[in-house]
Amino acid sequence: MKSKVIKVTLLVFIIIVSIAITAFNDDNYFKINKNFEIFGAVFKELSSNYVNDISPDILLQNGIEGMLKNLDPYTVFIESNETDEIEVITTGKYTGFGLSISQIDNMNVITGLQTGFPAQKAGLRIGDKIFKLDTTVVLNLGNDLLKNFTKGTPGALVDFKIIRDGIKDTLDFKIKRDLISLKSVTYSEIINDSIAYVKLERFSNESAQEVKNSLVSLTKHRKISGIILDLRDNPGGLLDAAVRICELFLPQGTLIVSTKGKNGNRNYNYFSQNLPIFPNTPLTVLINEGSASASEIVAGALQDMDRAIVLGNRSFGKGLVQTIVELPYKNELKLTTAKYYTPSGRCIQRLNYEDNDKNKIVEYKKTNNFSTKNGRKVLESKGITPDSIIIEEKISEFSKELVFSNAIFSFANHYSGKLQNIQNNFKVDKAILIDFSNYVSNKKYNYQSSEMKKLSEIKLLAQNRKYTEETLLELDALEVSLNKERKIQLDLNKNEISELLKKEILKRFYSYEDMLKYEVSKDKLILISSEFLLNQQYKKILANQKNKDGSN
Which of 71, 221, 403, 508 could form a disulfide with 416 if both were Cys (CB 3.0 to 4.6 A apart)? Predict the structure, then answer.
């Protein structure tokens, strides 16, 4: 016990001293040493003399969490058994089966499959529940514990027992672990005969090369009129990857992004080092509220240099740079070390974490104007604001609730469970909609709208407080009315519900790439973007010319 306390205390000491190296004056050194001495004394007393046994590891973990809790959410301590997640972000590679798992109704359910990798090739489907891996029941294990069974040596065979809706017995699969490579470019094609479309989902080491290869391949045998780079729902990744992607479109020597740390620390300027492959091809960048970090660096640089039109909705607004710091015993600290700035000088960080109170996080109030290369006005502190805001179609609140409650997902499992394949012209007809309506009303599924949940709470409270029978009957009548309203809402929103059901059912049979192709064909923002590239409005916006009505 004593040796373990000494070991962990030493770890704390090394962490604090590592931070102390960056201190810039004697006062800081004194404060660090003073507080470390206090921290060490408290740690020693608790470990040695507290009435109950305390694990030094847990005590240290709690201490680190206490140090970080009032900082930004991106500064995190990464334990040695979690560092492989950083490797995935950096390289896009990991050892596993090529599947994504989420906890739905407290069960481990497959929610994604990588095309061409073991799980998909073996015949697993989205919606399958993982009951057993080898001899261990994992159905209800938390994600952290489940990882212990999915990691391992490439080439090793693992027995899967799967529960699939509509099939009584479990399904048995033998699946080999493999090295999984996550693609950054998940889909690319020529649309409208002459527009190259590229969907980029992450920023890792190979992202720039993948974008380049996709565009070169698409343009090899035909002349194109423009390029669409789709960064919607791309949460970011490596800053260097963002810089290299910008190099494909911007002149050599162009400033792409700057970073600024405390007291001049971490101040860097990133310039385009190479000649562009596509220096003049008209370009649009698509963003939304899910586009963050490296996505915003790319969108911001191309916007500031008037190299691209940015379309969609305002981006997330993450202007903070993280650095991975190696710690003793293979632990790591992901530490926010700087803010980044677009070429015009704007920082797009939206949320203010400087008040050290995560319960009172607010948006930056100050919004300064900056100018692009051609003098167009752009804003800071609000994410990247598109040159043309195009609101993506929103589904009704009723349909949204069906999605978030997993009613759509669960019904797709129910409907497709016994099917071996699906017709190419599959559509959700009236019979399927009736089946869905019955399904969400069935006690086995027990879907409740938010209104019904609140009514159930009121009824239980009324019964406990012994309300009059008249009041209880009125509440029962209200429940009947709400059930009728649900059927009315199902009918009012049947078109969008039909499309949501169709997409979810197709996911059980289509590859991820085929689903992207299907969604691209119905994406109105992509259609609008291609029209921008094919008319003169594109050049007018970038040149900051006035339209006929006199507006900019």
Answer: 508
